[in-house]
Specification:
The protein has 300 residues and is α/β, with parallel strands linked by helices. It has twelve helices and nine strands. The strands form two sheets. It has a seven-stranded parallel β-sheet with strand order 1-2-3-4-5-6-7. A two-stranded antiparallel sheet has the order 8-9. The relative contact order is 0.10. Residues 1-221 form the HpcH/HpaI aldolase/citrate lyase domain. Its cofactor is Mg(2+). It comes from Dactylosporangium maewongense.
Length: 300
């Protein structure tokens, strides 16, 4: 999910060229206070343009948080056809999530849109402490982000000293991941702020995937390809898991409930994991192969 300043409409094309699966048009931190009102109309137009350029791209909008008094004005403007989700900042407990849920439902009905989800970042100590309740608060929540950026709100709130290895935030991220698994919510990680350190980014992505995350946010187009490679299925992994299923099936046909595959003991639990992994890999492959709308090629 690539974040874009909401008041920069030409960045939509750049994001699509970069290969982002989803974009988040930002009305919060990325937009100066004096430009927020004008940015709402720009974001509403950008939603439609993004969908015309790449119909299957996910389009979210980060609105301003509830304490600002701007949330309703933002939602009134940007809840337009094509918006898939609202990125809801500064959520600290289940009550906050339900307040956002109520606002989104109201503007869905008012503006004639539907099925708009919520993406919620963990940005405060209180949010991390309440993540289980937040994740279970409303089925509208589709994504929770285990935020651990170097200089963002969460670093100030919790007081950790960030390192590229991320051990100081491992417990926080793991708690988010487990809460998401229990609630059936997609867990994402982030954020890598060092724009030119792509090796560091790849190591951070690999660690997130190894923990169990299945996606990451980005703030620069150059990071998208690295993230896609880290979290996407590789041909080698696809071949491995297909071979595992075939090896187990051959053993089962011969009357055995276990087998040795590439030097590893495998049984039904391994096959269940491989089958689930391959199904997800197929979904990702189909998503990536979906054609862009006519005219996108001129921007490539």
């Amino acid at each position: 999910m690539l974040f874009l300043p909401g008041h920069r409409p030409t960045w939509v094309e750049k994001a699509i060229r970069a290969g982002a699966d989803a974009i988040c048009l930002d009305l919060e931190d990325a937009v100066p206070a004096g430009e927020k009102e004008a940015a709402r109309a720009v974001v509403a137009e950008s939603v439609g343009r993004a969908k015309r350029l790449k119909p299957n791209i996910g389009v979210l909008v980060r609105v301003n948080g509830l304490p600002t008094g701007m949330t309703g004005f933002d939602l009134e403007a940007v809840m337009v056809p094509g918006v898939d989700g609202i990125f809801a900042p500064k959520i600290e407990d289940a009550a906050d999530a339900l307040r956002f849920d109520t606002l989104v439902e109201w503007f869905e009905r008012r503006n004639g849109v539907s099925d708009v989800g919520l993406a919620i970042p963990m940005e405060t100590a209180k949010a991390f402490a309440n993540v289980e309740a937040i994740a279970a608060s409303t089925p509208r929540i589709g994504i929770i982000l285990g935020s651990t950026a170097e200089h963002a709100d969460v670093a100030r709130e919790i007081g950790f000293e960030w390192t590229p290895q991320g051990l100081e935030t491992l417990a926080h991220r793991a708690r988010v991941l487990l809460a998401c698994r229990v609630a059936g919510v997609h867990a994402m990680t982030g954020l890598w702020e060092r724009i030119h350190d792509l090796d560091g980014l790849r190591a951070f992505c690999d660690q997130g995937r190894q923990i169990g995350f299945r996606g990451q946010i980005a703030i620069h187009p150059s990071h998208v390809d690295v993230i896609n490679q880290a979290f996407g299925p590789s041909p080698e992994d696809i071949a491995f898991y297909r071979g595992l299923v075939e090896a187990y099936q051959a053993a089962a046909d011969a009357g055995s409930g276990a087998a040795v595959y590439r030097g590893r003991h495998i049984d039904k639990a391994h096959v269940d994991k491989a089958t689930e992994w391959l199904a997800r890999a197929e979904q990702v492959t189909e998503f990536d192969a979906a054609p862009a709308a006519e005219g996108e090629g001129q921007h490539a």
